[in-house]
Amino acid sequence: MIKIIQLITGEMLIAELKQPHQYDYIKNPLYIHQQAVEGQGPKVSLFPYNILGDGDIKLHSNSIVWSVDPDQKLLNQYQEAFSSIITPPKGKIQA
Fold it and tell me: Under a CB-based contact definition with an 8 Å cutoff, are residues 41 and 34 in contact?
């Protein structure tokens, strides 16, 4: 399941969260960077979180403060980051 998680360090991630027992595993984590844009509201950017390692990240359950389901727009942005399908922008096709 794809979740937004807040770590005790203050970092906010979006990742595939797997919960076995006392440890949680996250797959394909992306760091969520929020920036206030005057007159437009918050701007959200996603950045790779684990650029030096390979595979799932093992977290102790106490490392997670909270988790929540992402809204559809953020979920789509996350899925696009790991999709091999490129969707063209919407618009008219001109000859």
Answer: no
The structure tokens 């006392």 sit at 22
The number of helix segments (H) and strand segments (E) in the chain equals: 1, 6
Residues with Cβ within 8 Å of residue 39, at least 6 apart in sequence: none
- Side chain identity, residue 2: I
CATH class of 2-81: mainly beta
Q: How far apart are CA 26 and CA 93, in angstroms?
A: 40
72 CB contacts (<8 Å, ≥6 apart)? Answer: none
Asked if 9 contacts 72 with a C-beta cutoff of 8 angstroms, the reply is no
Separation CA 78–CA 49 (nearest Å):
13
Condensed to tens digits (0 to 9), the pLDDT of residues 41-66 reads 889 999 999 888 888 999 988 999 99
